[in-house]
Design goal:
The chain is globular. The chain has helices at residues 2-8, 14-36, 40-64, 71-90, 99-122, 137-153, 158-177, 179-182, 191-217, 222-256, 260-287, 301-324, 329-343, 350-373, and strands at residues 326-328, 380-382. Strands 1-2 form a two-stranded antiparallel sheet. α2 (14-36) runs antiparallel to α3 (40-64) and α2 crosses α9 (191-217). Helices cover 76% and strands 2% of the residues. With 386 residues, the chain is an all-alpha fold. The longest helix is centred in the middle third of the chain and has 35 residues, at 222-256.
Length: 386
């Protein structure tokens, strides 16, 4: 009873929310890369940048989780925020030149060392033996950060991109490699869902901000205003998919699962990064549909809106499978339809594509609302979680 009462009152501190503001800027910087250089390489680089920003945010959030708000914690969050701020400033130039990539890599290394030392002092892995606090998932991310330093010193192009990919994969492998240790760490069931939901809001806000800024600078006609309205409705549909039903499912799973570390790893850390990447891709794709909505999309950005939406909906299927052992038929079907729709991107005017994606998401939300309010069971794709 005491634990439940304590969890019910866990909330993000004001210092954590200030740290989140830095991530708002960081996500904007990462999303700007494929806007300037419209290529699949730029999209891949955006995903890599988002991955280290995400892992930096997750690491900081888990480190301060369960610690009372204090001056020491605030200074720690400010120090982490400064590192992320530097990463965000240099992010658009992470794959060109040498000076700014090196500044980014050093800031990232300092951040990872701060997180590793804080987790070591916190003692969350003391149960794993003498070396438990010295060798934890954060140790792996320090090694990953050293690879980014090497990448900054490598010539731009294939070698640097390859080192980035290896570094990101190594960072994400940390919790999986040390799953047994992570499974015994205690996590609160209220604070973490709220924090990860906040990052989803940040990613949704990027779409509103990017489309809004593009619209504010353009000479909009009637059809363009229609695109603006559709984009906002699309954002509402994306919000509804997560916060109407998804958020409560995550909180319920974390509260009832005997091994909370598994939910934190698979659903929050891995599953939610797919949600965020999907939302950012939607943001980049929607931004190009404001000024010339009747034109047929050319190049990479024309594919990003339906692909991002498909990834976003697919992430829910993965998360539900990991939480409850089965994905819903509705969201699996929706993700498949959106993926197929992406193939037609070069054939349709942008406003038609925007309208179709929005209609699919609204239909999915409407179906789920009807199912829940009428008391009907959700149709599931049965498959045991591993």
């Amino acid at each position: 009873m005491t634990e439940a009462r304590h969890e019910a009152h866990e909330r993000a501190s004001w210092a954590e929310l200030f740290f989140d503001l830095v991530l708002v800027f960081a996500v904007t910087q990462a999303a700007h890369v494929p806007v300037v250089e419209q290529s699949w390489t730029a999209v891949g680089q955006t995903v890599l940048l988002l991955a280290i920003m995400w892992w930096s945010w997750v690491g900081t959030t888990l480190t301060v989780h369960g610690i009372e708000d204090s001056d020491r914690q605030r200074i720690f969050l400010f120090a982490c925020g400064l590192c992320v701020f530097v990463i965000a400033i240099t992010a658009p130039h992470a794959f060109t030149g040498y000076a700014q990539p090196l500044i980014l890599a050093v800031a990232h290394l300092v951040l990872r060392l701060l997180l590793w030392d804080a987790m070591r002092r916190k003692g969350s892995f003391a149960h794993a033996g003498t070396l438990g606090n010295w060798f934890n998932p954060y140790t792996v991310t320090v090694l990953s950060a050293l690879l980014l330093v090497a990448a900054a010193l490598a010539p731009p192009g294939g070698i640097r991109n390859g080192l980035w990919i290896i570094a990101v994969l190594l960072a994400f492998a940390g919790p999986a490699l040390l799953a047994r240790r992570l499974g015994t760490v205690q996590f609160g069931a209220t604070h973490l869902p709220e924090r990860f939901g906040t990052f989803v809001i940040i990613a949704l806000g990027e779409m509103v901000a990017s489309v809004g800024s593009e619209a504010a600078q353009a000479n909009l006609g009637v059809v363009s205003w229609g695109s603006v309205v559709l984009t906002f409705v699309l954002g509402c549909g994306l919000w509804w998919l997560y916060f109407a039903y998804g958020f409560s499912a995550v909180e319920h799973s974390l509260r009832t699962n005997q091994v909370r570390g598994t939910v934190v790893r698979d659903v929050l850390s891995y599953g939610h990064v797919l949600l965020v990447i999907g939302l950012v891709l939607v943001s980049v794709g929607a931004r190009t549909m404001v000024e010339h909505p009747t034109a047929i999309a050319h190049g990479v950005t024309g594919y990003l809106l339906p692909l991002g939406a498909a990834l976003y909906v697919s992430a829910f299927c993965f998360n539900r499978w990991r939480m409850f052992g089965a994905a819903t038929v509705g969201r699996t079907t929706g993700a498949a339809v959106l993926a197929v729709l992406a193939v037609a991107a070069p054939l349709l005017p942008e406003i038609v594509m925007l309208s179709l994606v929005t209609a699919i998401l609204l239909a999915l939300n409407g179906y789920e609302h009807w199912t829940v309010t009428t008391g009907r069971p959700l149709l599931l794709l049965r498959r045991a979680a591993v």
